[in-house]
Amino acid sequence: xxxxxxEVRHEENLREHYAMTLKGWCDNLVDNWDxxxxxxxxxxxxxxxxxxxxCRVGFxxxxxxxxxxxxxxCDDAGNAAFPLRxxxxx
Length: 90
What we know:
By secondary structure, the protein is of the alpha+beta class. It contains 3 helices and 2 strands, in the order βαααβ. The protein has a two-stranded antiparallel sheet with strand order 1-2. The longest helix is centred in the middle third of the chain and has 19 residues. The two termini are 33 Å apart.
């Protein structure tokens, strides 16, 4: 990012969030299985359930991570025009 004129301001690992999201998606697919099969077929529905369940296992086991990175472009003087983080010490 820095090589392309951006400055990293925040980074967050969303691993736990994605594990929870995938659990919800798997539950939703199972709850609506007949509709899913009617729309895409049993084979494709099974592949998606397996894929999402395996990804969830990967996130839970810390084999897969997903990082969100926030970058800002500074002006020539180095000003990012981005607010400072709040002071939580008070």
